[in-house]
UniProtKB/TrEMBL annotation:
Keywords: Membrane, Transmembrane, Transmembrane helix. The chain crosses the membrane at residues 16-36, 56-78, 116-137, 184-206, 218-240, 252-280. The keyword Coiled coil does not apply. This is Integral membrane protein. The lineage of its organism: Bacteria, Bacillati, Bacillota, Bacilli, Lactobacillales.
């Protein structure tokens, strides 16, 4: 194998590694960072307009869903759970509403990578529960979505962006249509559940983001290794590259939809808190 071929393979592996790093690591971290800041605004609105204890009687269900996300993913990545409280009604000295304490072997790459997903897990558990509620109350009929068979290699980023936008618009449009087609009590119940759960479920703490960042370091090394292996496999099975395109594309779309859904849920929660707080404030002034 001559030098030119090796350079070409190295370039392909480098491009693939960069693309996978953006889609599988950087973009999820950005989504987590944005979610933590937006959720903090909603939680602050709850505390300022009501009380510290309101985080329990309004957002208690969200806290449980949040901690369950940490717990489930910690178990999936074989961390040893030392203690957990899905809802700490007595209050911790650090002000946490719930907690999951776990230990792992830093020499075990699987457990180390798990920190990345454990830190971001509340976003996934929160959206999973809210999606179930939407299914139960509104019964949306989603159109099956598959990645395009061909990606324009001359303008790959534009092609990816167009597909992501179209898919996101389709999924959200079908959700809104199902919501508007449901009965009024289902709409009210769903909005109330979204509002209460979102007040606390998506509140990623600095410790959560730090955990994800620690896992990202090991994840980065793993992605680079995977990119090199995939580049070699594509030499033997060129069709594998097409399947990889589809997987990466759908992964990016899922995280985009996740961010949009979380933003919508947090906006609903924030508006509901302000609407409820307004008449209470007027009563107190009188």
């Amino acid at each position: 194998m001559d030098v030119a071929v090796l350079e070409s393979l190295a370039l392909q592996a480098g491009k693939l590694a960069l693309f996978l790093i953006v889609v599988l690591i950087a973009w999820p971290l950005v989504v987590g960072w944005l979610t933590s800041h937006l959720a903090r605004v909603v939680q602050r609105t709850l505390v300022v307009n009501f009380s510290e204890r309101a985080q329990y009687w309004v957002g208690g269900l969200g806290v449980i869903i949040h901690e369950l996300g940490h717990l489930i993913f910690a178990l999936l990545f074989m961390h040893r759970i030392s203690s957990f409280k899905l809802l700490n009604l007595s209050g911790n000295h650090d002000g946490s509403l719930g907690s999951v304490a776990s230990n792992y072997n830093p020499r075990n790459w699987y457990q180390a990578v798990g920190n990345f997903f454990i830190g971001l897990a509340p976003m996934l558990s929160g959206i999973f529960v809210l999606t179930l509620l939407i299914q139960l109350l509104c019964h949306p009929d989603y159109t099956p979505v598959g990645a395009p068979e061909f990606i324009n290699q001359q303008q790959p980023l534009l092609s990816y962006a167009q597909f992501a936008g179209q898919t996101t618009q389709t999924w959200l449009g079908e959700t809104v249509t199902a919501f508007l087609s449901s009965s009024w009590w289902q709409q009210v119940l769903l909005l109330l559940l979204i509002g209460t759960i979102s007040t606390t479920a998506f509140s990623l703490s600095p410790a959560d983001l730090k955990s994800s960042w620690q896992g990202a370091k090991v994840y980065l090394f793993l992605v680079i290794i995977i990119s090199i292996v995939i580049t070699g496999i594509k030499l033997i099975h060129p069709a594998f590259g097409q399947s990889l395109d589809q997987f990466v594309l759908l992964t990016g779309v899922v995280w985009l939809v996740l961010l949009i859904l979380i933003c919508i849920c947090l906006l609903i929660s924030w508006i509901e808190l302000l609407v409820i707080a307004f008449p209470l404030r007027l009563i107190k002034q009188r």
